[in-house]
């Protein structure tokens, strides 16, 4: 019987570690494959040109998606002429893009990119019906179902224009004649070289380098992937952050849970290790045995997890595209390097997780084999006391720093450090913290008459480490969920409130099925809109720019003038600069700033004033910006009076609704990423809870049998076990909420100061309640199912 019990305990500890590693390495391998597959790729519409000449691209920091300075118009014409003369080049095509969105059945369709007809050669896309577009004509994707000769309204940056469909092509896009496309597009950043039959691509590329000189960079093969749209690059970057976070969380949590599983297993096998020591086993041999057992489990579980990750990788790719974390066309490709790295990571996670447990097993003395009663009275190790106290102290110091922040200093990171530090400290000190909290929570049970309440209380106080091992994952999961979701929801509400407070307008015109507002859509409603784009300084560094009028800035609430006057925006040769740009470059009213516009032309503009808290580096006349950037769309337009019906692709909304919807897409992505992280941590917490309950049941089978033989019915025993689980989960939930709320309040107060508004604290309590209920359900079910065999065995005696 003793051998059978030992095998049961050993299997319980192995099963818990196996489940955690299987889950963790599945996630790690899927994420690794997705990250390896997430590189830039050559856009389909440019895949037919083997050689491209692009503008020199500046080095950009991580998360910077600013565009590069376009060529001047004269440079474009000169390069095209000389590149077209290279032997083997059939066409040198300037890649011009602009906004063009057909309106079919009264609604703008999803295709919103316009190109010159000559750019169809770069794919190459071919006519499936009709002819190439001429003046007043357009060629469209055949999937739209419009036959040649059909009139179709097309939204352009200036407003709707009715074109006649000249033909249909076998690819997406809106194609206009080259002359009209040049009028609607901004600067050119790439020229594609379409080669003739039998042309030597290497020779063409070498000749192109000679022609381009320092004015351009020649790209061939996979190098052409730098031509992917900036929005796709940004989407890939967001996806990489999400995947990296999930991978790091999976690996980190796997180490903790594997370590916890083997630590509980070692605690329950102390008598076995004592017998080994009594018959002559050295501490080194015991430690080696534990490592060997862990490696056997780890290698098997990691291999299974890596195999599962390889099978589920394509499914993850589809989920990422659907959620908006990867651009359309992204697929997860199988690759041996990520899978090998995931396998190595699994082995390292196993070794890291079992290290502490192996040292604890080696310290078991031979006399442990003679112990009949196993009372969990071992003191907390000194190192754990010191580390836990240090983490709590660090968290409290960070909390004080966040509370003292006046909104001018970063306050989110101190708040996160505060909560995470206290949570980590409580997790380390949980064997010391749980008993007094348990006594406080279960004090009403001592006043009752029933034996169940007393048993629940005493069992929780006697088996301190088992109680702490179950409460800790709940504490971490609930605490992290309250902290992260509360922070995301509170900041979103704060930005919406600040935006609603700042806007001084009666209504707002916003896009409806379009990426932005055309000039006609805003003016039809009696509104004017500011334009957000980029300028480039003399060195080619991008500067964010807003084209506006003094009236527009006043409606938007952006009127904090440090020096000069907003009236500078009424002149085409003057600009306003943000305070940080003025301080960094020594600019003041009267200074001259040379800039290049989006169409490639250059000018020297005079600084007419300095703004504090501006939303861009440079502010200039809206009319001046529109003349030099014919493609930018407005994000919104403000109306002071009663708005008239807007033009196509726009709708009227209230200020409060606009403030809530302004960052809807970004908020959606952030919320999905948050839910993914919470879901991953919850799954691991569930595995840890189930594992702890199963291992505990294996170790306390004798106690449950004695309780059953003492006269308790099987139902009463199982009710007691379930009540113990509910108590432990309640303790973890309460501690998690209590740890996270103070840090959130500190962040909210500092954020309210920064936003100059009374920002509410928003916590998704239904989500938190669902997480706590899920932990409770798993704990109760696992405890009851694991304890049932012991009650049946006792009943059969």
Automatic annotation (TrEMBL):
<feature type="domain" description="ABC3 transporter permease C-terminal">
    <location>
        <begin position="677"/>
        <end position="793"/>
    </location>
</feature>
<keyword id="KW-0812">Transmembrane</keyword>
<dbReference type="GO" id="GO:0022857">
    <property type="term" value="F:transmembrane transporter activity"/>
</dbReference>
<dbReference type="InterPro" id="IPR003838">
    <property type="entry name" value="ABC3_permease_C"/>
</dbReference>
<dbReference type="InterPro" id="IPR050250">
    <property type="entry name" value="Macrolide_Exporter_MacB"/>
</dbReference>
<feature type="transmembrane region" description="Helical">
    <location>
        <begin position="294"/>
        <end position="317"/>
    </location>
</feature>
<dbReference type="Pfam" id="PF02687">
    <property type="entry name" value="FtsX"/>
</dbReference>
<comment type="similarity">
    <text>Belongs to the ABC-4 integral membrane protein family.</text>
</comment>
<feature type="transmembrane region" description="Helical">
    <location>
        <begin position="763"/>
        <end position="787"/>
    </location>
</feature>
<keyword id="KW-1133">Transmembrane helix</keyword>
<feature type="transmembrane region" description="Helical">
    <location>
        <begin position="717"/>
        <end position="743"/>
    </location>
</feature>
<feature type="transmembrane region" description="Helical">
    <location>
        <begin position="337"/>
        <end position="357"/>
    </location>
</feature>
<protein>
    <submittedName>
        <fullName>Putative ABC transport system permease protein</fullName>
    </submittedName>
</protein>
<keyword id="KW-1003">Cell membrane</keyword>
<feature type="transmembrane region" description="Helical">
    <location>
        <begin position="411"/>
        <end position="429"/>
    </location>
</feature>
<feature type="transmembrane region" description="Helical">
    <location>
        <begin position="669"/>
        <end position="696"/>
    </location>
</feature>
<keyword id="KW-0472">Membrane</keyword>
<feature type="transmembrane region" description="Helical">
    <location>
        <begin position="474"/>
        <end position="498"/>
    </location>
</feature>
<feature type="domain" description="ABC3 transporter permease C-terminal">
    <location>
        <begin position="247"/>
        <end position="364"/>
    </location>
</feature>
<feature type="transmembrane region" description="Helical">
    <location>
        <begin position="385"/>
        <end position="405"/>
    </location>
</feature>
<dbReference type="GO" id="GO:0005886">
    <property type="term" value="C:plasma membrane"/>
</dbReference>
<feature type="transmembrane region" description="Helical">
    <location>
        <begin position="242"/>
        <end position="267"/>
    </location>
</feature>
